[in-house]
Design brief:
The protein is an alpha/beta fold. The protein is about 35% helix and about 20% strand. It folds into two domains: about 5-60, DNA polymerase, domain 1; about 65-355, Aldolase class I (TIM Barrel, Alpha-Beta Barrel), CATH 3.20.20. The radius of gyration is 21 Å and the shape is globular. Bound molecules: S-adenosyl-L-homocysteine and iron/sulfur cluster (SF4).
Length: about 375
């Protein structure tokens, strides 16, 4: 019988596990604390469990977390960990320290199926979903590597599901991990401080609204369907109007909350005065904060980032119309840790990279 990996179970999952092995439910709370708060992964060290129970756990369960392969520290303090998965692939996790807070950018998949044209992860193809232990394991590892703050303060105060992959495409595992982020017996980070970014999987935004009240960010990046479909193929399935309607439903339930709108600045593609006007028009009924993201280049991309002047003009136009718009500071670019640059090592099962190389070879002939 395969052993159950307890690192990937939220409190409900742990309770179900203990019920199955004939133990009381409070054991779930003890295990959550051992694994996530004290970072103890050896049953032998769990001193408040009886010897008999420890032996039972050794036979039926395990606590397996991913391993850090490399750590890179940027001159601005940003840290990137390359994390090895059991399948031989690797993913990346980034920690961004700022005044008064520390944000961890967590990956949800090895690669991504959605193939947005401006995204390094998307251009690499897809291998597999991360399981819940690999997702929460990134927070576990970050805490382990960051060590203790001298004042005893928490170092990871916020989590953004904005690393490699589309989190809603790996719904159950992501929700399980986010529940552990929230649980006071694990990490105790409030829903408001956990942000999930999606390229717009509309039915799952509605489901998330019911299951897990995290903050929501959407990758809009274009204000008309023609352009958005060109750069985000998923837009053909869930066009802008449907996406914004789902956002409206999300904030209606959440009261007081806004939606973060991400908009990557691509020179000559989506950065004109008319683009800004269109954006103002489509966002007028939604409480939003717009995050303009300078495009971060990666090998073999033909996109360029809009100039500083154009970004400033775009931002000003939005602000003049009463929208809240900020420009995202690019962090950790000296260690290739900025948005959209995370690549890891993806053995592409979709053969996308192979198809692209073939197409390029044909064109060159
Ligand atoms: N799949 C999710 C979350 C991961 S990407 C999503 O698409 O929302 C996190 C953010 O980085 C998204 O807004 C994404 O569009 C943006 N991004 C991707 N590639 C980028 C690049 N090269 N430069 C800047 N931002 C990029
Ligand atoms: Fe996937 Fe997000 Fe990259 Fe698009 S931007 S390819 S959805 S990770």
């Amino acid at each position: 019988m395969a052993r159950t990996n307890l690192a990937g179970l939220d409190l409900d999952g742990l309770e179900a596990f203990f019920a199955e092995i004939g133990e009381k439910s409070f054991r779930a709370r003890q295990l959550a604390q051992w694994i996530h708060q004290y970072r103890v992964v050896d049953f032998a060290e769990m001193t408040n469990l009886s010897k008999v129970l420890r032996q039972k756990l050794v036979e039926t369960a395990e606590i397996t977390l991913p391993e850090v392969l490399e750590e890179h520290i940027s001159k601005d303090g940003t840290r990137k960990w390359i994390i090895r998965l059991s399948c031989g692939n690797s993913i990346e996790t980034v920690y961004i320290p700022e005044k008064g807070r520390g944000t961890l950018c967590v990956s949800s998949q090895v690669g991504c199926t959605l193939a947005c044209t401006f995204c390094s992860t998307g251009q690499q193809g897809f291998n597999r979903n991360l399981d819940a232990s690999e997702i929460i394991g990134q927070l576990w590892l970050a805490n382990e590597y960051l060590g203790k703050d001298p004042k005893g303060k928490r170092l990871v105060t916020n989590v953004v599901m904005m690393g490699m992959g589309e989190p809603l495409a790996n719904y159950n595992n992501v929700v399980t991990a986010m529940k552990l982020m929230r649980d006071d017996l694990a990490y105790g980070i409030s829903w408001r401080r956990v942000t999930l970014s999606t390229s717009g999987m509309v039915p799952l935004i509605d489901k998330l609204r019911e299951d897990c009240h995290v903050s929501l960010a959407i990758s809009l990046h274009a204000a008309n369907d023609k352009l958005r479909s060109e750069i985000i193929p998923l837009n053909d399935k869930y066009p802008i109007a449907e996406l914004l309607a789902a956002c409206k439903r999300y904030v209606d339930v959440q009261q007081r909350r806004h939606i973060t709108v991400e908009y990557v600045m691509l020179e000559g593609i989506n950065d004109s005065v008319q683009d800004a006007k269109d954006l103002i028009r489509i966002l007028k009924d939604l409480p939003t904060k717009i995050n303009l993201i300078p495009f971060n280049p990666f090998p073999r991309t033909s996109y360029k980032c809009s100039s500083k002047k154009v970004i400033a003009r775009f931002q000003q136009q939005l602000s003049d119309a009463g929208l809240v718009a900020t420009v995202r500071k690019t962090r950790g670019d000296d260690i290739v840790a900025a948005c959209g640059q995370l690549a890891g090592e993806v053995q592409d099962r979709t053969r996308r990279t192979q198809r692209i190389a073939q197409a390029e070879a044909l064109q060159a002939q």
